[in-house]
């Protein structure tokens, strides 16, 4: 920046903070000091770069640096970070091109940085006001859609800057470039609103899933209550029958213990969401002849979103059930252990690895064994995203024919589960 002064450095640093805030409002940033430092450095570099139409020397490397910085510093899946990078880059570089090529004709260089500040401040306030709620989640297909939508304004800005060689000698061409840059800038609002709508839709889908599981859980609870009342009413008759049976008494007791009131266990923990998921999935496992050994030491409600708890337990068990279905009935067994302690929530799910599952990998995660692979296989990715969004992590291991999924998330310091 020729003629740099302390005032210009302060303005540039403020612009870098605004751009960092825009990125942060759209994707979570890694909870590492170096990630925040790198993001600010990349944003500072990007906002101070002068973008002249018809001169690609500055634009191309700046785009690469900004995209790489967003991918490194952001959390979430690759599609998510790339879509946000394209969305933000098209906005930033359209603002820079307008300021450096049009505003610069009327306002001297030291002062047009303030115009860029005004643009970025307005975009920052819009992003803060209308951005999706913190911790929102979109499916990979939704992020793919947003990436395609973001690619259009991104390509428009690149094309205007790189291809427009007649900018300085053709007035009509200059006006056309301005119109295209304004359209690319305005598209940020549409993309932001689309992200909000998709985020709400995804949240409603998860809430509907949770509601359905809760409904099934309470229906089963009601059925159990009815079975207990009926068993209590018939207990006198059962005792009289056993007293007169003699040698067949043992068989009669065995049949009695198979009744619903004795077999079903609904209160797995002190968290209603865990109970709902475990009850529904245990019914599925019983139907598929899958044995489950469960140890759940959670004595109160977990301090996480119910949809997050539901997603973690349901997807973990679905993954194990899917694997067990490929085994012979006598080999189908799932071991689930979960609890809270020492400031952590931990979930461990183990299951045998089917022969077809060995060596199946996808982006570091086991691929789905379902035939409709394009619409399945996102369960583990969902668990990973949920855990990381809550400050935790997911680990997977496959050893000696056994698959192990481990999820751990820190409990809030003010939660009663923290020891």
UniProtKB/TrEMBL annotation:
Family annotation (InterPro entries): HATPase_C_sf, NatK-like_C
Pfam families, per database record: HATPase_c_5 (PF14501)
Record-level Gene Ontology MF annotations: identical protein binding; kinase activity
Sequence segments annotated as region (Disordered): 353-377
Residue ranges occupied by any Sensor histidine kinase NatK-like C-terminal domain in the UniProt entry: 306-410
Transmembrane segments: 6-27, 34-53, 59-79, 113-131, 143-165, 177-198
Record's keyword terms, sorted: Kinase, Membrane, Transferase, Transmembrane, Transmembrane helix
Identification of the protein by name: Sensor histidine kinase
Source species: Candidatus Allocopromorpha excrementigallinarum
């Amino acid at each position: 920046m020729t003629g740099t002064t302390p005032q210009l450095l302060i303005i540039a640093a403020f612009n870098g903070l605004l751009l960092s805030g825009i990125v942060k409002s759209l994707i979570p940033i890694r909870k590492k000091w170096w990630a925040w430092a790198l993001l600010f450095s990349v944003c500072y570099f990007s906002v101070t770069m002068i973008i002249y139409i018809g001169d690609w020397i500055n634009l191309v490397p700046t785009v690469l640096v900004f995209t790489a910085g967003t991918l490194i510093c952001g959390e979430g899946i690759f599609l998510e970070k790339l879509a946000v990078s394209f969305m933000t880059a098209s906005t930033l570089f359209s603002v820079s091109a307008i300021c450096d090529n049009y505003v610069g004709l009327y306002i001297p260089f030291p002062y047009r940085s303030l115009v860029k500040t005004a643009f970025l401040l307005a975009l920052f306030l819009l992003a803060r006001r209308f951005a999706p709620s913190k911790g929102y989640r979109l499916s990979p297909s939704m992020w793919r859609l947003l990436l395609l939508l973001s690619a259009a304004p991104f390509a428009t800005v690149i094309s205007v800057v790189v291809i427009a060689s007649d900018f300085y000698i053709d007035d009509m061409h200059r006006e056309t470039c301005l119109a295209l840059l304004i359209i690319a800038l305005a598209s940020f609002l549409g993309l932001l609103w689309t992200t909000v709508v998709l985020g709400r839709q995804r949240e409603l889908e998860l809430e509907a899933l949770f509601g359905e599981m809760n409904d099934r859980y309470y229906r089963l609870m009601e059925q159990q209550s009815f079975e207990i009342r009926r068993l209590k009413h018939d207990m006198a008759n059962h005792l009289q029958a056993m007293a007169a049976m003699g040698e067949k008494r043992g068989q009669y007791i065995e049949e009695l213990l198979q009744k619903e009131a004795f077999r079903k266990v609904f209160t797995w923990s002190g968290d209603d969401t865990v109970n709902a998921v475990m009850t529904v999935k245990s019914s599925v496992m019983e139907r598929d002849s899958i044995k489950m050994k469960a140890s759940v030491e959670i004595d109160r409600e977990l301090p996480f979103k119910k949809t997050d708890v539901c997603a973690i337990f349901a997807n973990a068990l679905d993954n194990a059930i899917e694997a067990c279905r490929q085994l012979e009935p006598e080999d189908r067994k799932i071991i689930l252990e979960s609890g809270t302690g020492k400031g952590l929530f931990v979930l461990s799910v183990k299951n045998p690895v089917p022969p077809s599952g060995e060596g199946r990998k996808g982006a570091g995660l086991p691929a789905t064994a379902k035939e409709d692979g394009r619409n399945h296989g996102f369960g583990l990715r969902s668990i990973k995203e949920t855990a990381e969004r809550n400050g935790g992590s997911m680990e997977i291991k496959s050893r000696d024919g056994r698959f192990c999924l481990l999820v751990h998330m820190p409990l809030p310091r003010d939660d009663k589960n923290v020891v």
